Every structure is written in C-alpha cells, then in structure tokens.
TrEMBL record:
InterPro entries: Homeodomain-like_sf, HTH_AraC, Tscrpt_reg_AraC-type_HTH. This is Helix-turn-helix domain-containing protein. Keywords: DNA-binding, Transcription, Transcription regulation. It comes from the Bacteria. Residues 198-299 form the HTH araC/xylS-type domain. The keyword Transcription applies. GO terms for molecular function: DNA-binding transcription factor activity; sequence-specific DNA binding. The keyword Magnesium does not apply.
Length: 303
C-alpha cells in the first residue's frame, strides 16, 4: 500500500495540478468551469492529509475504508489522514463542486487541531456522507469561496489564520447539517436501534456472550454495515444514548432476569453476561440502577 507524507507527492500521484501552498490545496468549479480529472484508478493508498469534498458520482464505485460509496446525489465527503482510499477506472465524477485538501501539520498548534478530533464525520465511511439541501450547499460554497480567495491571493501573515478560521466554520456547519440529516433519517435511526438490539439478543442466545465476552462496538457496527462512530452518533441523536450506553442497558436488563433465578451467585451472573471481573459488573449495575445486584435480588426476589 502506498502512503504519501506530503500534499505535493499525493497530488503528483493523483495527476492533479501542483498545490499553490505546500500544505493546502483548494480546487473549486461552478458554472462552466470544471474540476481537474484525478488519476483514473488506484490501488489502496493513504496520506497524511485531510480532505473535504463536494462531489457527485455519476457511475462506478469508490471504496473508502472497507465500504463502497454508491449514490448519485451531491454529498459532502470527509476523509481523515491514514484512511484507506481506493477507486477503479469505472468511476466517473461530475466535474463540478470543490475539493479542499490540507496536510495535518497545516493546523498543528491551532485550536482547530483540537476541534477536528471532535468531529465524528471524519470517522464515518463514505456511504455515510453528508447530503446537503440546496440552502445548505449555498452556505458551504460561500465559506469555500472565502477560503479560495485567501488561497489564490498573495498570502500574508494573516492568510493562514483566516483560512483556518473559515475551515473551522465549515466544519461546525457540517456538524449542524449532520444533526439535521440524523433527524430526517429518523426511520433509519429506529431501524438501527432495533437491529442493534436484535444483534445483541442473537449474540446472547447463541452463548457467545458467556464464551467470548461482551462484543465490541466495532464488531456490532460491522454487523450492521455502518461505521462505529456513525452508529453511536445516530443513536445518540435519536435516543440521547450512545451505543455503549445501549449495550450497557441491554446487559443490565439481562442481568435483572438472571439475578432472580435461584441458586446462582453474583459472580456467575457476571460471567454469564461476559464480564471478566464480577466487581466491574457490580459497579456498573449499581451505577445504572442505584442499588447493588445483591440489593436488587433481595428487593425483587420471588418468595
């Protein structure tokens, strides 16, 4: 797998115009203008760069991580450093939109370097891209125009600060628009929660919880064909609880059933639920229910 440490090396490989800044590139096309065509195909590659792009795929598939990106509507795509990117010769983009690429060192030492880690969409797979409404698209494009002006004009001591400020604004709007997307896809959110709980039930009924232990959130997300971060953010938006909280809720509910069985110790309950250490199970139970497993058993035992 090829890895590109600099933006220039990455663009040279992509057969794109050399960036005007060693750590930043802004490509934009509207009206009768068109974006330059990238390299026709590529085996898996990684870079040290962030990428924010508004594009439409006319035909073909783009693989990002392990997931196919397959839609025809315009969407905002976010890619993080060291994510695996691959595409083939069948792919064809509509050559309008924009693409901003910047090396991770471009924002080092700035507030954005800390902020950017909080934006979950850089961890989403590409099929979880942000689909913009026409109004939202205009807002994003106006911010990109401001970045482009600073990028193409004679850069001075203020340019980098202005560009980073605009990038921060763009990402904050993207975060807001993702929240709207989660709300608009409420049916999908409900489906995800239902399938999430079904997967946990099947896992528990198969005995894997006892034999293998508590499944990781990543394992569950893979079963649902979504990224770990997208699953958590979707459920958080819909229910107010993250995937970890839903997993813990499932375990506590199962624990309540098992605790009321006769002749089974607290430790045995913990092991049956996949906990390696009974003490952790007891702490989690008390944290969620306000009483210990023993107190719950005494309170609700069947005489």
């Amino acid at each position: 797998m090829k890895h590109f440490k600099t933006l220039s090396a990455y663009f040279e490989y992509m057969e794109l115009p050399k960036p005007e800044h060693p750590m930043l590139s802004v490509l934009s096309a509207t009206g009768d203008k068109f974006l330059p065509c990238p390299k026709e195909s590529s085996p898996p590659i990684t870079t040290d760069c962030y990428s924010i792009s508004l594009k439409k795929i006319i035909e073909g598939n783009l693989n990002y991580g392990r997931t196919k990106y397959d839609f025809t509507n315009g969407a905002l795509i976010f890619m993080a450093p060291r994510q695996v990117l691959q595409w083939d010769s069948s792919i064809r983009f509509e050559q309008q939109g924009f693409s901003i690429n910047f090396h991770e060192d471009f924002i080092k030492g700035t507030e954005l370097a800390h902020q950017i880690k909080k934006f979950g969409f850089f961890s989403y797979t590409v099929n979880e891209a942000l689909h913009l409404s026409p109004r939202e698209e205009k807002i994003i494009e106006s911010i990109v125009q401001n970045i482009e002006i600073e990028y193409h004009n004679n850069q001075d001591e203020f340019s980098k600060e202005i560009i980073i400020s605009q990038l921060s604004t763009l990402l904050k709007y993207a975060n807001r628009f993702y929240e709207r997307q989660f709300i608009n896809r409420k049916e999908l959110s409900n489906d995800l929660l239902s399938i999430f709980n079904t997967q946990l039930s099947l896992y528990f009924e198969s005995g894997q919880l006892h034999e293998i232990g508590i499944p990781s959130i990543e394992d569950i997300a893979n079963k649902l064909s979504v990224s770990k971060r997208y699953l958590s953010d979707t459920l958080k938006s819909e229910t107010g609880k993250t995937t970890t909280e839903h997993l813990q809720l499932f375990l506590i509910n199962e624990a309540k059933n098992i605790l009321l069985k006769p002749n089974i110790s607290i430790a045995e309950v913990a092991y049956e639920l996949g906990f390696e250490y009974p003490q952790y199970f007891s702490r989690l139970f008390k944290k969620k229910e306000g009483i210990s497993p023993s107190e719950y058993r005494e309170l609700y035992k069947i005489n």
